[in-house]
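To close the section, here is one more complete example, presented without commentary so you can practise reading it yourself. The ligand is pyridoxal-5'-phosphate.
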Amino acid sequence: MTRLRAARVGEAGVDLSADAPLVDVDESSLPRRPVRNSAEREGVRFDVRRVRADFPILTERVHGKPLVYLDSANTSQKPEPVLKAMDAYYRHANANIHRATHLLSERATQLYEGARAKAAAFVNAPDLHSIVLTKGTTDGINLVAQSYGRLTLRPGDEIVISWLEHHSNIVPWQILCEQTGATLRVAPINDLGEVDLDAYAALLSPRTKIVAVSHVSNALGTINPVREIIGPAHARGAVVLIDGAQAVPHLPVDVQALDCDFYVFSSHKMFGPTGVGVLYGRPSLLDAMPPYQGGGDMIASVTFEKTCYNVVPYKFEAGTPNIGGVVGFGAAVDYLTSLDREAALAHEDAVLEYATTRLREFPSARVIGEARQKTGVLSFVVEGVHPHDAGTILDREGVAVRTGQHCAQPVMDRYGVAATIRASLGIYNTRGDIDALMRALTRVVEVFA
Ligand SMILES: Cc1ncc(COP(=O)(O)O)c(C=O)c1O
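Output:
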């Protein structure tokens, strides 16, 4: 027997223990990590079998077949610690944050602000106040467009994006252009799916006020050389927003080393729940920006004559946020940072390389997007088969991929295709998953032969 806090929240990675009474717990009932397994004994730094065991959904069967999940760029699956943290939050801490004196509210506030601190460390933000908790990447981009953009842009100013962008990093800027009279300029990509850096530099001018580009393309997997994009933009006096939605699950991110002005990402792409995201903002910019939305918690005082706003980041967090989701997001950050990320990335790269080789050998398949630096995504078409038809047959074989435009219609137009099949990887995917994909693709071709 051992003495533990009653809430047993420690097992969910949630530290509520200080307030819970001590109780006797049979140690054999506690979850534990497996003892050193063969992979560890052999010095393997990333044991994909053990990682897979953390994701209960991966044992699911679909249409009577084992699930092969190759749709993590769409949304990732959630590991046990994230599920447990959210469950523990609702069982032991559920209350509204920042605004009540009772114990549950204190617990909820601690967990919520704890997740902010974890997010700050995750991207090496200079301080906690530079981390705004949002609904996701889309929300973060809209916040910057409507707050910073409307404050600063004048008719004739320009916003530069790239041809690789997700609709979330196109449409908010188009709306802003309509509101302010600014113009949207688009840096082209080459046939490999890489931003043409010379053409990009040629677009920059003293009129450029905002540059907004993805760190990793969701449609092609291209890793953009963001430092080479940020430097020239700063030299022209523009601020730079990096859309990190597809980068954070794969690459370590350091916003200070990147020297970006804004960095946005979503929890659900990095093994956390949906409905939560992060906007990192350079503190001096966030301070000067007006609120995006009005409501509770974003104010210091309200009278009918005048309202004074709360300090950063709270002035950007109007209303009751997704507290349970933020707690799960904090656990997802803990989960990712508990892994050897270099080894995880090496594993993912090896699976991506294997998948690319297998697809190149597949007679009727054509890879779309062959950038020299890629991560996580393999887009392709199979000659003579509409991607949606292929997706339906793949699903019947247990293989989950995304088919369509991937919210990146300009990329599809650039390659002259209506849609692609996109297999996207998470840390839990294996070469076996790729073998299953190839077997299912053979079935696709048989059906349409
Ligand atoms: C590169 C990129 N940017 C933005 C988004 C939008 O993210 P969310 O829907 O989580 O706001 C996505 C989602 O797929 C994405 O891949």
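Once you have examined the tokens, check your reading against these statements. Residues 341-448 form a domain with the Aspartate Aminotransferase, domain 1 fold (CATH 3.90.1150.10). The pocket of pyridoxal-5'-phosphate is lined by residues 136-138, 166, 168-169, 214, 218, 243, 245-246, 266, 407 (CB under 6 Å).
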